[in-house]
Amino acid sequence: MSLHGKRKEIYKYEAPWTVYAMNWSVRPDKRFRLALGSFVEEYNNKVQLVGLEEESSEFICRNTFDHPYPTTKIMWIPDTKGVYPDLLATSGDYLRIWRVSDTETRLECLLNNNKNSDFCAPLTSFDWNEVDPNLLGTSSIDTTCTIWGLETGQVLGRVNLVSGHVKTQLIAHDKEVYDIAFSRAGGGRDMFASVGADGSVRMFDLRHLEHSTIIYEDPQHHPLLRLCWNKQDPNYLATMAMDGMEVVILDVRVPCTPVARLNNHRACVNGIAWAPHSSCHICTAADDHQALIWDIQQMPRAIEDPILAYTAEGEINNVQWASTQSDWIAICYNNCLEILRV
């Protein structure tokens, strides 16, 4: 799908509700496809799958389905070759795996590790392992992280049945865990990090779960809400504190001391996205309506200013850099999704 002929730089979609969770499809045959989750403060929420029509160069909603509670995160299976079923995962009260077809989206499995109780501790986030798409990790307000194994089972008729099991569950923090992300280091399957309400970034290795490494602690012990690994250099990660106006860049080889602070935002930062194709570019988005792209290659010298700034028409609550289309960034604010050519 070539949009270069038309050469529009921005495409916009307006949803019928406030958009919170949002992500790009990864499959090579579904290029300008994204999933959006509603943020409605009640049980009934929605997920929409939208795609850019080449002819009209407009976004079209291909599919809407119901979701209990708002989705805290949405991810498509990280399948760059298109060899797995077309799956989508969402977190909220549980981790759900959905199968997407041209006509409908169907719940494939619901992953719940509190089998013995009706109580569920809401999931704050999850990550889908890029090296092994049969691995997912979830983070929860109950202080734990859970690593799940997926099985894409035998083909029955024309359908592969997908099921999941708990590979391991661990107490990751002293308080709520707010985000989890697999690292590409050491083969990309075994290492992950998490952040949480105790203000720490912790690193884990599935082969040695008896101990973890604290990479960083917020000086004021403010909760850390997000963490994001550099896509090209597994030594670097970015994190941000609750209500914080800066993004902290960390180097795992130099624990506890930030190598850079990105602090041009005038209101609290809500999202971080590293460039998929470059180790020195990162995008941050905030309540000041701004999405800023930074070049951090002069670290550890201070990084004063971003190299690009885009001002949206509202507070930006999510930013995602398309992993397979590295010149496109998606942001959402209010009820709008915008994709921006960079």
Please give a structural write-up.
With 342 residues, the chain is mainly beta. The chain has a single domain (16-270), classed as YVTN repeat-like/Quinoprotein amine dehydrogenase (Methylamine Dehydrogenase, Chain H), CATH 2.130.10.10. Helix content is 0%, strand content 52%. It has strands spanning 10-14, 19-24, 33-38, 44-52, 59-68, 73-76, 87-91, 95-100, 105-111, 123-128, 135-140, 144-156, 159-171, 177-182, 191-196, 200-205, 213-217, 224-229, 236-241, 247-251, 260-262, 269-274, 281-286, 290-295, 308-311, 316-321, 328-333, 336-341. A four-stranded antiparallel sheet has the order 1-28-27-26, with no helix packed on it. Strands 2-3-4-5 form a four-stranded antiparallel sheet, with no helix packed on it. Strand 16 and strand 17 (213-217) form a beta hairpin. The radius of gyration is 19 Å and the shape is globular.
Summarize the structure.
This protein has 342 residues and is an all-beta fold. The protein is built from no helices and 28 strands.
Number of domains: 1
Low-pLDDT runs of 5+ residues are 1-5
Give the CATH topology. Methylamine Dehydrogenase, Chain H
Helix coverage percent: under 10%
The main pleated sheet reads as:
4 strands, antiparallel
Overall CATH class:
Mainly Beta
Instruction: Give the averaged pLDDT, no decimals.
Output: 92
Total helical segments: 0
Helix and strand succession? EEEEEEEEEEEEEEEEEEEEEEEEEEEE
The largest sheet has its strands arranged as 1-28-27-26
Number of strands: 28
Pairing-aware structural class of the strands and helices?
Answer: mainly beta
Q: Give the CA-CA distance, first to last residue.
A: 17 Å
Shape: globular
Q: How would you name the CATH homologous superfamily?
A: YVTN repeat-like/Quinoprotein amine dehydrogenase
CATH architecture: 7 Propeller
As a percent range, the share of strand residues is over 45%
